[in-house]
Amino acid sequence: MMKAVSLAGCAVLGLLALLVAMAMAQQPFATNDGPVHLAFADLIAHLHDDQGRALQREAYRVDLRLTPNLLPYLLMAGLVELSSVRIAESIVQLLCLLAPTIAAWCALRAIRRDNAWLAIFVFPLSLNQLFFLGLYNYCLSTAVFFLVVAAFWKLQEARSLAWSVGLGALLSLELTTHAGGFVAAMAGVGALTAGHVALAWRRERAGPVAALMQQWRAILAMLIPLPLLWMSLSESAGTPVLFGPGPWERAISAGRLSILRQTGGADSIIALALSLGLAASLAWAVVRIIRQGSRLPDRAVDAMVATLAALAVSVVLMFAFPDTMGGGWTHFYRLILFPYFWIVLLLAQQSFSARAAWGLLGFVSAVSFALLGSTMKNEALVRAQMEPLRQVDRLVGAHCTVLPVVLESRPVDSTGGAIATTRMPYFQNASRLEAHDDRLVLFNYLARLPNYPVRFLPQVEPQRLIFHWPPHYRGTTFDAVDVAGFEKASGIPVDYLLLIGDPRRQEGALGEGLRLLTAPSQPLFASPDHRVSLYLRPRQPNSRCVPAPAGEP
C-alpha cells in the first residue's frame, strides 16, 4: 500500500512540475530582483568581451570574490553563455521551485525510503514570497540544505571519512549559495550532532570525550567550511546590524506562514491551512515518540530526538537572528521556512497507516494545486500589465543609457488602484534592457551593495547621484531625480527617460522635476493608461547612443 502512495506522490509531483514548466514556456515569472540577477549574470559572462560592451564597462565592475552569493551567479552566467537571458532565467526559476522538493526527496529517502513522498510538502513552501522577490540564491540554498541533511544521515549510517568530507563539501557549497541557508544548515547539523552526543553520553554512561569521539566525523565536516566563512565575513565588516521585526511579529508571521501570501485572501487561507496541518502533524509525531519510544530501537529514537533538537534550534534562530546583517536584510523571513522543513524531516521517521498516508498526500496535493492556481492567476495579471515594457525594449537604441523613474511598482486593478501584492514586479524590470545592445540602465537597487559580484563604479552609482539615497538605504521611494548632477559627476549623458507609473499623479517637487525633464524630450511611447512612457532626451555631444529606427514597436 505504501508503494501505491509513493507512486501517487511521484505522479502529483510530476504534474506540478509540468504545470510550472508550461507556465514558464513563454517567459519567466515576474519577480522583483530577478531581472537584476540575470543582468549581473550577463555582465559576468560578457562584460569584458572585446566588442559591444564599452558603455557598460564604463559603469560596472565585476568582482568574483568569495561571497555567499557567488555560486548561483556563476551558474546563471554559464546558462546565459549557453542560451539566452530569458531561457537562463526560466531554467533558474524551474530549479528554484523544483530542486528543493527533489533534494528533500533524496533526504527523506535517506531517512526512510517508503516516506520519501512526504517531500511534496516542500513544493508549496517553495512558492514563497522570496521566490517572487527574485532571491534565487536563497531558493537554491534550500535545495542544498536538504542535500546536507541527506549527507548527515548517510554519515550516521556509514561512519566513513568519505561521507564526512562530502558533508563538509556540501556545507561549503551551501555557504557559496546563500548565507541564510548556510546558517540554517550549520545550526541544524550542529544540533543533530549535539543531540546524538548527549544521548550517547546519557545512554552509555560514557564520558563526554567518548561521546564526542563517536561524532568526530560530523564535527570534522562542520570545520571544513570555516576558512571560507572567515574569508566571506571579512567582506561584510562594518555593515549595520539591526534586529528588525519584534518577537510577536515574528511569531505571527511564522505561525501563519505569511511568507506564502502574495495578495492576501485565498493565499492567506491556504498558507494557514498548511501551517496548521504541519503543526498538527508535529504534535502527533511528538505524542507518538513519547508513547512508543520505549518500544522503538535506540537508534531510531536518537534520530527523532536529535531532529526535535534541530527543530528547536531553527525556531530559536528564527526569533533571535538579526534581520539586517552582513550588508543584507530580510534575514528573518529567510529563516521562517526551516522549522517547517524540520517538521517534514521528523514526519519522515514515523510509520503511517495507509489511511493516514493517503490523507496526508491528499491534503498536501490540494494545498499545492490551490497555491499554484493562485500564483498562475496573479501571474496572468502581472504579465498583461508588463506588455508595454516589452514594447519599450524595441524602441531603445544601442549604446544608450536609460533612466527608469519607478513611480508605481505594483500591478493595478480595473480602477487604476494598486493591488496589495507582496512583490513589486515593475520595480527593477527595466534591467532586462541591459541584456543586449550595450545599454546602461540607471536604476539598480543591488549594484550599490557590497555583497554582490557586480557593482557600479562609485562615480556612476545612480541611486546616490540621481535619487540621493544614502548608503544601505532600505526604502524604495525618492523625492528627487537629479539628472544634471549625475551627468556632471559621471560624464555619462542620460539618453532615455522611462517613466513607470502615471506622472500626472505626481505633485510637489518630484512632479515639477519630472515635468521639467520631459518638456524638452521627444515622446516615443505611451501606454493607453499612461503608466509606461518613454522619452528620448536631447542629444548631448558625448553621447554614443544609436537610436532605434523610428516607428511603432
UniProtKB/TrEMBL annotation:
Keywords: Membrane, Signal, Transmembrane, Transmembrane helix
Extent of the signal sequence: 1-25
Transmembrane segments: 94-111, 131-153, 182-202, 214-233, 269-289, 301-320, 332-349, 356-376
Name of the protein this chain belongs to: Dolichyl-phosphate-mannose-protein mannosyltransferase
